[in-house]
Amino acid sequence: MANGFTTKPPRRLTIIAIVLALWGAMGVFAFYGDATMSAAKLAAMPEWDRQFYATRPGWFVWAYGIATWAGLAGAVLLLLRRALAVPAFAVSLLAALVQFGFVFAATDLVAVKGAAATVPFPLFILAVAIFQLWFATDARRRGWLR
């Protein structure tokens, strides 16, 4: 009986999809913590962070949410071996680029906190997002996704 796949996927597809799903879940958890931050946690933040949190545009929160939720959805779709993982990861990458683009282009974050403290983790997040999209696209091309 045909299963809709052109090639049997290697075990690494499942392993990578699980790791990406865990990464996505951590991102959603971080977004949830940001979106539901208590006044006490906000008061404990450094002044620049409090000011940023209070003045960031509403669309920024949406970009953050879309980046994390679309990344988690893409990983779950990858686990389910669905080709819809590709557009989900593309949306996640685009939203992350918008989010970080705003932070680095429209704020003085780097001037205040320094590049060494602020640039590496966003670069890592973007590298993972690029990898997710590349991997899902390659998996689809190889016939591992339907």
TrEMBL record:
Keywords: Membrane, Transmembrane, Transmembrane helix
Domain of life per record: Bacteria
Transmembrane as UniProt keyword: yes
Organism: Sphingomonas baiyangensis
Protein name in the entry: Sugar transporter
Transmembrane segments: 12-32, 59-80, 87-107, 119-137
